[in-house]
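User: I've been going back and forth on whether these two constructs are worth ordering. Before I decide, could you fold them both?

Assistant: Sure. I'll take them in the order you sent them. The first construct and its structure tokens:
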Amino acid sequence: MKTIGIVGLGIMGSGIANNFLKNGYTVYVWNRSLAQRERFQKKGAIALGNPREVAERADIVFEVTAHDQSSRQVWLEKNGILAGANKKTVLIANATLSVEWIDRLIQECQKRELQFLDMPMTGGRVGAETGQLVLLVGGDEKLLDKIKPDLKAIAAKVFYFGPAGHGIRYKLILNALQAVHMVGFGEAIRTAQAAKMNLKRVSEALIDRPGGVITALAWQDYQSEPNPINFSIEWITKDLTYAKQSTKNLDLPLLEAVLKQYQRAVKKGLGKKDWARINNLPAKK
């Protein structure tokens, strides 16, 4: 059985680590928070002092950080992942990152002749906790096939998109589409309110149409904010910003309009709120 390394024990990283432990894997972990490392040590993981030590010991290393800045640090610093990995180590970037940074990271791995896959995830907190994530992969397909049996511990589905970097590109496309749908639902509800319609009946009919999964989530969270949240406003704003940066030469008015709405919510101090709460903001002309 392969050994597993997890760098980053936030919502997603914690879920992944827990499921590998439940499936009998030896799991090495690192997180900036000492308290979080100690919490996982009590669960049976082996807590280490830095990402380099994780990469030195694990067969497969999953990097599950928050954004470009934290990702760069855990990969490139002197005690980072790249400093500890060898040619047999399978390195995986699970965070939703910018195209610019993922392409740089791919180059850094290629220079060192290291095995690398970009593998952002969808499924949120619940998917991570239950081992039902959907993994979106770019990189060497033969390498992916070698580790697919291990991925069953954390994922219900694995989609392969092509060369390294294509997993991230797809994730940004997906998040942009879902954000457009989320904000579109808010406009539909405000239109129904203005027409003095029964919102419960409107929502039930909308959920029954194509795209009902996001609509159902939006309606549920419109009525009351989930606790814990599924996905924060600040994180979808980050992902939409990365998506816009990767499409500088394209005319994408829907993406730009939705990004502006989420940026407005962040400016109002709502960044930590669930991303569906965008629809509870007062309409602004």
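The second construct, handled the same way:
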Amino acid sequence: MNSEPETTSENGVTPALPLYFVKTLAGFEGFLEKELISLGGTHVEQAKRGVEFQADMATLFRVCLCSRFALTVLRPVLTFDAQNPDALYDEAKRWDWGAIMTAQSSFAIDVTVHSAVFTHSQFAMLRLKDAVVDHFREFSGLRPGINREEPDLRIHLHIAHTTVTISLDAAGRPLSRRGYRPAGAKAPLNEVLAAGLLAHAGWKPGIPLYDPMCGSGTFSVEAALWADGFPIQWHRRKFAFMDWRGYDEDEWWVVRDELKESREPVATKIFASDRDFAAISQTRQALSTMELDEQVQLGRSDFFRLKPETDEGIMVLNPPYGERMPLEDAPAFYGKIGDAFKSNWPGFSAWIISADVDGMKQVGLKIKRRIKCFNGAMECRWMGWDLYEGKGEEAPETETTA
């Protein structure tokens, strides 16, 4: 697992550098690709819901610390064809697991299966677990233990038809977990989803942002972290790669020092509000956890009475939907949102995430862009409007799948 000197072959590939696969949400691959290139990744290539790249150890550290669009970072270590679970066991048992762990290591396995041959994902996971344990027991008489919560090594098993790929999880805890979400937050957005939706809306540090139905504050905290300039995972102290054989702790601290020195905060006006006291309290707690108390202007207010403090900017709404909004109330609710857009927010770009597509049509304005996305298992739309003074020329609508 040591990083090695880079060498380049005739076809441009650098075989000395490990290959990684970074998972993201559908529609965010382009953002992630640009991010990985900026962090030093080489031979970067988009795939479905992810991006492949090559990296030395220092670049891996930067990606895990800085990527706001990554869910997790996987390093494939073994790929083979298996026609049944026993073939998976045999091939995995033969592999040199001692190259990446010891008999004293604990491990856990995550599994993803898309196969008519492997119809039970848990059985496939158990066969891989048995292969790892039996490998060490046969060679040393010892067996590594299972620890699903805090393993030394987290292994990812992916099966597509009969192709088996075994990877190491470099992050451990998903990178979407930034560490600021209050316990018991109601209907929170996934943090990677919030960051990607902000990017799709065209927001970047320096542009005023309004989050007037802030809930637990995910949009506002993500924006504040972005503008503050510190790596998104700066406060995190534990990553799975720290238990890999060959982990270089000195290099880790060099990378952290370099990132701290290169920090470039951008002064940005961010306004978060909600009519619910509990939501304001949760957002305040999240900002405080990340030491961002001064980065966001936070207050209690009703969106329908709110007027912006700037002449332009981007406004994002995460209103109640699904079980939190009875269908019979939705048309009137979204109609009021449209009235507020026209009365109070001319000159702004406004965006709404909701599962109620029919309800959002009651906003009554020409939609500039709509993006399909998922908030958890719930299919949603991220819809955007450009709000004009009077009867301005309206841009044509575009639709994207995220």
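Notes on the second construct follow. The chain has two domains: 19-169, 191-229+265-401. Residues 121-140 form the longest helix (20 residues).
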